[in-house]
Every structure is written in structure tokens, then in C-alpha cells.
Amino acid sequence: MRVLRRLFLFVIPYWKTLLVDSFLLLGRAGIELIPPLFYKAIVDEVIGTRDLTRLGVFAGALVGTYVLQALINIGDMYIRHALGERFILDLRVRLYAYLQRLSLSFFERTSTGELMSRVTNDVNALEQFVTHGSALTAVDLLRLVGSAFVLLLLDWRLALLVLLPVPVLAVSLRYFNTRVRPIYRRVRDRLGDVNARLQDNLSGIRVIQSFGQEERELERFASESENYYRARVQGIRYWSTFFPAMGFVASMGSVIVLAVGALMVLRGELSLGTMVAFLSYITSFYEPINRLTEVDNVFQEAIAAGERIFELLDATAEIKDTPDAIELSHVQGEVAFHNVCFRYNTGDEVLQDVSFQMRPGEMVALVGPSGAGKTSIANLLCRFYDPIRGQITLDGHDLRKIKLASLRDQVAVVLQDTFLFNTTVRENLLYGKPDATEEELIAAARAAYAHDFIEALPEGYDTVIGERGVKLSGGQKQRLALARAILADPRILILDEATSSVDAEAEYLIQRALESVLKGRTALVIAHRLSTIRNADKIIALEDGRIIEVGDHRELMQRGGLYSQLYRRQLELAATEEDK
Predict the structure, then answer these.
(1) What one-character-per-residue DSSP string does 340-374 give?
(2) Which of 307, 231, 275 is closest to 2 using CA atoms?
(3) What's the per-residue H, E or C state across 465-534?
(4) What pLDDT digit, counting tens, does each position of 479-499 carry?
(5) Orientation angle between helical segments 135-154 and 272-313, nearest 10 degrees
(6) Which of 94, 109, 378, 402 is the most buried (most CB within 10 A)?
């Protein structure tokens, strides 16, 4: 019930539309009680007396009633279903907006396919809740009460017979709810698993095909789909049995009333017209009950979907603005790490007592073996995570005291695995600065040595580059990423092994681009190819999460420590490659 209450709270903002539709539904409920009275009048006052003078009046009134009922139905159906679509739109946008505010750690432990399932399928499952579960449920209850009242007025004895199946229906519905609710939750979960598997496989289709694992992945996808199918069939088994059974119980009530009513008519205890009207009202009585049982099924699906949606909305962002966070209007670019310790979730510490300083406009390079903590330092500087101990400052301000939007306006990141959107070159470049002029756009592309190859593309800057930039080479993607960073004009630039996966020519062009990109900016460079950082102002060598040595290239080579070993090893490997 807690989930249902929360769902109804989500519907409250649409109260004006619901109020209009409620009036329409109330009107429909009232009008639906009228036709049986005309049936009674026609049978008793026209057929029974063989007086046709009033037949036209009764028939005309009956037609007018049905016309009014049809018009109300048109308005009701349009308003309810349009409201359902608006509710789904608003909820999906709200859910997406909330997801964007969650921390990276949340996305690391939740699959993309699972999130997509919740934002699309689970949200869609709530449409029936809105269109059939709010005002319609209340009106059906009123119709039920109204029909029962009229039945009691017509003949209380037959009315009691009509009410006989109601306790059976109520007990059965409770049993159905207990059984079907966990099944519907399982259905939503299994669908999330299918979407997660599909998203994962489509994203990794190159790896699947390169290793010839198509059949294996097909089996795994088929297995997930089979689990979803079985959960669905289990739910179908329950409701395909329950609803016909409820219909049968209601029909037995009609049969009993028909049999007893026929005897009463033959004995003269009941007029034939009253009997006809009574049978019509039985339909008006049992129809809301049947629909309420079906709506209850909608509620159970909505509860299952709502639980999964609220799990997302109840997730808290670990990285968020503090109440006293400040806005940085102007940034010099001085960064300092003070005895910083960090670990991911509950794992071992990946950084231990890390302290260093980056002066404005200074280029600082991080080197070290894989797992040394280089990328963790970059993540902390972007405040994707917070240290478990210690402090990181920007221009003397603790990052935790700076508004996230303000901080990230001043930081741009170029990763080894460059992410580009499946849209045009222009839109990718403008991502960091949507209001940039054409001159600024081209200037940034030239600075990154990307303008020439962009112009050579089929449609130049308006060329669609495919998902993750699949139509471009590694070097071209990196230069686009650099151009995007240049256009954003950050005070702090982070390069995370930006040249490690490109060939020598592309590396040369990227290096030339970096010379112009880094001017006047504070830069943190994570280097894979150590030859690219010889001119860095400061080189920090890390191992096992600790700073081993700090200095420039000349100083560190003279010491013969970790940096010198790594550098000489790369030279030896390069010489070996040349000999081949």
C-alpha cells in the first residue's frame, strides 16, 4: 500500500484534469442508471397495457440518453488517455533528471540495460494505473453503490441474492493479490535482465564477433529471455484463471436472480418490467466488480513497476553540493592534494597520503604502473568521488565546498577511450559550449589539428560520425575530443592517457595540438608513453597508491628511481620494435 500511496501522490499535480474527468465519469455513472428504467416503463406501460402512445417518447428519451452517454465516453477516454501519456512523459523526464544527479559509483554497480528498463518499460507500465486506476476506480465504486441502492429499491429480496457472490469475490481477490504481486515484481526484474544483456551484447558486438562467441551469447540471451517468458507465463496462468472464475461467480448470481425472479413474476409478486430492469441493473452491478478486479491487476503491475522506480528515486547521490557550497566566479587554477586517501566502495585503499601541488598554468604528469592510482587522482579532481581522508583544494577552496556545476565548468577531461555522441561533428564539438560561434568552433578545431580532416568528411562539420565515433580513426577521435575541450575553455585540463592508443603520426599531431591547448591552463596529464611528458613542469611517479618521487624529467632520470626505470624500459621496447 505504501507504493500505491506514493503513486497516487505522483498523480495529485494533475488534479485539475482529474477533476474534469471525474465529473464526466460521475455523469456517465449516473446516466448508465437511467436506461433500465426506460426498459421497465416500455415493458410495463407500453407492452403490458398495449398502449403505443408513449412508445415514441420512451424510445426517443432512450436514444438521447445513449447519445449523451457516447459523448461523455468520448471526452472521458480522450482526457484519461492523454493524461496517462502526459504522466508518463513527466515521470520519465523526472526520472532521467534524477539519474543525472546520482554519483558515478551508482552507475558502476547498476547496469545500463537495467536502468534503461526502469526508465522505459517500468514507466510505461504505470500508464494503465493512471488511465484506469485513479478516477475510474472511484467512479466504479460509486456505480457499484448506486446500482446496489437501485436494486434494493426495486426489490430487496432479489437484491440480497445479487449480493451473495460479493464476499466470495472479495476473498478471492485478496488471495489473487497475495499470489500475483511477487510474480509481477519478478517479471519486471527479468525484463530488466533481458535489457541489460541486450545492451551489453550490442555494445560489445565487435568483441563477440572477433572471438566467435555469437552462439554462446545467443544462448545466454535466450536463457535470460526464457526466464522472462516463464515469469510472464506464471502471471498469465494466475490472471487467465482468476478473471474467468470471477466472471463465472458473477454469472451464477445472475442465474439465481433470473430463476427466483421468474418464479416471483409467475406468482404475481413482481412485474415483468421490474424483472427486466433488475436484470439490466445486475449487469451494472457486476460490471464495476469485474472491472475493479481487472483494475486491481493493473494496480499489482503498477506496484511492481513502482517499487523499481522508487528504488531509483530513493537512491541518494553520494557526491552533492553542501548547503554552504560556493560559486567560483573566477579560477586561477591552483590545485593541491593534502594527505589524500581514497578507496572505491569498501575495497582496499588505492591512494594513501597523497600530497602535491599544481600551480596555475603548470603541467603535472602522473606516471606509474597500472593500478598505481593515476586515474583515481583525476576522478577525485573532477569530484566524481570524495576522498575518505584528506583534502583537495582549488584556489584554496575545498572541492567539497564548491558547487559541482561551478567546479565542472572549469574542468575538461580527455580520456584514452574517447566518447563521442552519435550525431554530427558540430554537435559533438559544441557539447561543452553550445553557444559558441562558428569562428570559435573552427578556431578550436584548427588548434586541435582537426579542421583539415573534418573538412574532408562527406558533409564536413555536419557529418554524422556514428555511435561512439565509429566512423573515425582513433587519432581523429582524440583530436575531436581535444577540440571539444579547447572550445569549452577550461582552466584545468585532464588528459588521461590521451595518446596511448594511436599511431605515431596521430600522436605527433595530438602532441602539436596539446602545445596550443595547454598554454595558460593547469594540466594534469596521465601518461602511458613517457616520451610525451618530457617537457612537463612536474612529474609525479606513483606506485601502489603512494607518491614515490617528484621532479622534472632531468631530475628523475638522474635519480635512477621508478620513473627512470619505466622510461628506460620503454626506450628498450621501442628499440626492439624498430629492430624488427
Answers:
(1) EEEESTTS-EEEEEEEEEE-TT-EEEEE-STTSSH
(2) 307
(3) CCHHHCCCCHHHHHHHHHHHHHHHCCCEEEEECCCCCCCHHHHHHHHHHHHHHCCCCEEEEECCCHHHHC
(4) 888 888 888 888 888 888 765
(5) 160
(6) 402
Instruction: Say if residues 28 and 65 touch (Cβ distance below 8 Å).
Output: no
373 CB-near residues (< 8 Å, 6+ apart)? 342, 350, 351, 354, 542, 544, 545
- CB atoms inside a 10 Å sphere around CB 335: 23
The predicted pLDDT at position 245 comes to 81
Take residue 430 and report the three cell numbers written for it: 559544441
Taking the alpha carbons of 384, 390, 392, 398 in that order, is the dihedral positive or negative? positive
Measured between alpha carbons, how far is residue 412 from residues 31, 95, 446, 457 in Å? 65, 26, 18, 26
User: Residue 20's CB: how many other CB atoms inside 10 A?
Assistant: 15
Beta bridge partner(s), residue 392: 337
Q: H helices then E strands: how many in the chain?
A: 23, 10
Is 272:43 a contact under the CB 8 Å cutoff?
yes
SS3 state at 306:
helix
Q: Other C-beta atoms within 10 Å of 504: how many?
A: 9
Hey, which residues does 159 pair with through a beta bridge? Answer: none
CA 390 to chain centre: 35
Question: Which sign, positive or negative, has the C-alpha torsion 16, 17, 20, 24?
Answer: negative
Label residue 340 by pLDDT band (50, 70, 90): very high
Domains of the chain, start order: 2-313 (1.20.1560.10), 332-410+492-504+515-580 (3.40.50.300), 417-489 (3.40.50.300)
Q: Is 337 helix (H, G, I), strand (E, B) or coil?
A: strand
Q: Which three cell numbers stand for residue 553?
A: 624529467
Per-chain mean pLDDT for the chain? 82
Return the residue matching grid coordinates 584545468.
492
Residue 388: name the closest of 105, 20, 4, 59 by CA: 105
25: nearest Cα among 91, 82, 74, 83: 74
∠ Cα 19 21 24 (to 5°):
115
Q: pLDDT over 70 for what percent of the chain?
A: 92
Q: What distance in Å separates the CA atoms of residue 84 and residue 127, rounded to the nearest whole number?
A: 5
Residues 6+ apart with CB under 8 A from 218: none
pLDDT at 530: 79
Residue 492 phi, psi dihedral angles, 5° rounding:
-125, 130
Question: What are 241-294's pLDDT values in tens digits?
Answer: 877 887 787 778 778 888 888 888 888 888 888 888 777 777 777 777 777 666
Q: How far apart are CA 88 and CA 477, in angstroms?
A: 37
In this structure, what C-alpha cell is assigned to residue 425?
561533428
Residues 275 and 79: their CA atoms lie apart, in Å, by 37
The distance from CA 342 to its chain's CA centroid, rounded to whole angstroms, is 30
Residue 504 has pLDDT above 80, yes or no: no
Structural contact between residues 203 and 217, judged by C-beta atoms closer than 8 angstroms: no
Q: Is the dihedral of CA 545, 550, 554, 556 positive or negative?
A: negative
Q: Read off the pLDDT of each residue in 528-549 and give the average, rounded to a whole number.
A: 86
DSSP of 55-70, one letter per residue? HHHHHHHHHHHHHHHH
Task: Give the pLDDT mean for 429-443.
Answer: 87
Q: Which run of H or E residues covers position 367?
A: strand 363-367
